[in-house]
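Run Uridine kinase through structure prediction, thanks.
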Amino acid sequence: MRYRPISPAVLAEELTERIDALTGPRIAVAVDGAAGATETAQLADALVDPLRLRGRATLRVSASDFLRPASLRFEHGRTNPDARYTDWLDLGALRREVLEPLKGSGEVLPSLWDAERDRATRAERVPLPEGGVVLLDGELLLGAGLAVDLAVHLWLSPAALRRRVPEAWAIPAYERYEEEVDPSSLADVVVRVDDPRHPALYTP
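Sure, done. The structure for Uridine kinase is below.
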């Protein structure tokens, strides 16, 4: 794969231009990458103000606020990589509360479950006008049937994955994701982030 070195600021600028060029009532953008190792939230955050300056109402949503309750996530233990891969994220809730309303009423629920307190966030729905954008960040998002208009995958080489992921027990989940889903083949934009200070944009 060929990569073009790019600064974080220029990456945000190029992604903003690409998102702003998308058409449709409202737009869903997913920023996908290994948790704690790829800074998906920081990249999604960096897109908010530039999009708003272009007149795009923007709402940030994190997949970590749509996890299943602890009783379901940890049914097979707290450090089970297979459960991390298949059971942690409530995909149905993301579709029902975020992505489907985004294309319909525009009334989006920004969060559902507080994983630290293990209880509902009781968040209020946020009305997003036409032309608005939801920026969703998280891990293991691609290949799961989530209807997004632009998918950005932050990719780590195998060595960087093992070096940067803070929870070593979770590494097999990401390796399985790479092998079974091949997220780079599904993403619209692939960014190599072995060193997050010096990303590189895949150029086909």
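The CA atoms of residues 193 and 199 lie 5 Å apart.
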